[in-house]
Amino acid sequence: MLIRTLLAVGDESLRRLVRRALDDSPVLLTETVGGERFWAGLRDEVFDLVVTTLSTLPEPLEISLSEVRNLRARPEVVILTDERDLSERARLLAAGAFAVLPRSLSAARLTETLGALVQRHRVSAIDRLKTEVETDEPRLGEFSSRSEPMHELLALAGKVASADTSLLILGETGVGKEWLGRAIHADGSRKDQPFVAVNPAALPEQLLESELFGHEKGAFTGATKARRGAFELAHGGTLFLDEIGDMPAHLQIKLLRVLQERKIQRLGSESQIAIDVRLMAATNQDLDTAMAEKRFRRDLYYRLSVMTLTVPPLRRRPEDIPALVETYVDQFRTQLRKPQIEGTSVEAMRALQGYAWPGNVRELINVIERAVLLCEGELITLEELPESTCGAGSKPPDSVAGLSLESTPGDWRGMTLTDARDAVIAEFERAYLTRLLQETRGQVGETAKQAGIDPRTLYNKMKLYGLKKKSFRRTD
Q: Which of 200, 184, 107 is nearest to 140 (CA)?
């Protein structure tokens, strides 16, 4: 994040000294000699930090400091003074000054002190930005998958996390593209810096340009105050552009220029701002088709796709469904105060694994939240699942030997041979173990003996397929 800093100092030599001291800090500097007219118009600007002198601030000082602190961005005020009286320094701090520094500081000491104050304010601003987003920060290591395509994806994501190259994430709606982007950011060298997400498809065209690049007061009708954009907020960190395929053509050109020059220009401004941002973009569209139809610029695609990650849809990794279900059952039983819920019944898990999930993980989350809300017992059953979800997997496994493409979870036509084979094997194992557990009434030792495997292996497979001992003990 760039810290917008106002240098309001009348003394040219002091102003030059402070300017040099801030050269290496992540600030966007505006200079002025002050004056009552300037201070009166300050409410229309956006500043995070004000560096000034006692002689520049209008009298009375307490009221001036209070008015500055009450501006829209609540800027901190650093006062440079010749006063050596400790009681005067205490008075200024009590009135709201962020810091009071002697003008006699050496250039090196001034650089060090101002740099520390800028960094302190920047850390607080980034923390506020993270709080406003109100989302947990995912990590790549938190996701455990039994799907080979996901293993490959997560391994590649781990390799690119520490790089600063642009990244393009492809995948259907709801597969978790932004989740992956946040996890890569959290595992990379910019993890302590901002992660700012913008969805171009969700904003009108003119508002989107302002959202990305910011604007000055009066830049367009309704722009009554200056505003910083996403690039400026993400300075030092990561900017995530979701659904990049929906970006208007003229903004694609502007974005390409930013990637080439690493500078932005706010609407209504004639000056450029140097930015340091790692760009991640995501889309559910077929960009090859979009480029062929001239809806997406090929040169922008090449800039964005230095590395490309493709998130597989949920229907191609049904073996991950039990773990996902368990995760979100745990989450929602806490949120919705349903501590009695232990998991899902065998039939419900079979239905969940047999469903094609056109909305992917996002749809699964909604289904589990609904099921937990409706569930009054210890296990989620078919009754708590939507009718559309129950259709694919509600039939009991009458013959484990008769498995075919018709019993493969999801749409086998969209799978590779390896994926389809793994899905059939997973369905076979689940059906086989379900039948044995029904016969032994959930006795793990006896079931493991009949299956010819050790109990630990059986426990692992039961967890994988969402099979609970309790549900079989009640079977007649």
A: 184
